[in-house]
Amino acid sequence: MPFIMAFIFSIAGPLVWTIIRLIGVSAVTFVGMNIAVSFAVDFVIDNYNSLPAVLLQLMDLAGVNSAMVMVGSTMSTVATFKAVNRLNSVWRAPGSNKPLTA
């Protein structure tokens, strides 16, 4: 029984530290992405609304607004994946000879 408790306590510290670190990084990433995406959306909407009415109707028929939404969501998804992959890049599988990449 003491070995099990020692094992649990030896895992608890690093696990809690990793969870706190991931929450902090995700909060900073979310706030930064929120600011960047809102800036980009405002820029696109301002320029989109300044077009002539006939061109706006043609673009709406062609589905340009849906394409802009798809591009924006793809950009935020790629940024999220890059942030998550950067967090996991230090760990390497046991027995692998790959160098650490930080």
Q: What is the topology?
A:
Blueprint: H1 2-49, H2 53-62, H3 64-87
Helix pairs in contact: 1-3
Keyword list:
102 residues; mainly alpha; 3 helices
Folded structure, characterized:
With 102 residues, the chain is an all-alpha fold. It has one domain. It has three helices and no strands. It has helices at residues 2-49, 53-62, 64-87. The longest helix has 48 residues, at 2-49. It is elongated and about 75 Å long.
User: What is the succession of H and E elements?
Assistant: HHH
Give the overall silhouette.
Answer: elongated
Biggest β-sheet strands, sense, barrel: none
For the residues shown, what is the average pLDDT?
Answer: 79
Q: Which structural category fits the helices and strands?
A: mainly alpha
* Cα Rg: 23 Å
Ends distance: 38 Å
Number of strands: 0
The helical percent reads over 70%
- The stretches of 5 or more residues where confidence is low (pLDDT under 50) are none
Domain count: the total is 1
How many individual helices?
3
Report the sheet-strand fraction.
under 5%
Précis, in short:
The chain has helices spanning 2-49, 53-62, 64-87. It has 102 residues and is mainly α.
